[in-house]
Amino acid sequence: xxxxxxxxxxxxxxxxxxxxxxxxxxxxxxxxxxxxxxxxxxxxxxxxxxxxxxxxxxxxxxxxxxxxxxxxxxxxxxxxxxxxxxxxxxxxxxxxxxxxxxxxxxxxxx
Length: 110
Hints:
- The relative contact order is 0.03.
- The chain is mainly alpha-helical.
- It has 1 helix and no strands.
- The longest helix is centred in the middle third of the chain and has 79 residues, at 2-80.
- The protein is rod-shaped and about 135 Å long.
- The mean pLDDT is 83.
């Protein structure tokens, strides 16, 4: 009878240990699955941020290139711009007119 009780107690202990082991394995599996999910989400966010940064850099490069191109056009226009000599007779109704304003408070004849 004593052996039966010992055997029964041993089986109950083994059953409890097996259930605890199974619960631990399930908990570890859930923890690992959550960790894997977080890592995948992190990598996805990093990829999205990297793509956004690359797109931003590309837009900045394009904007700088456009500004450089416009500066070249403007500087080229300045080089090509011509003015007439003031001592030469001006053509009627054409050319660039330059008006010089003389402030009476500012005198340059000293």
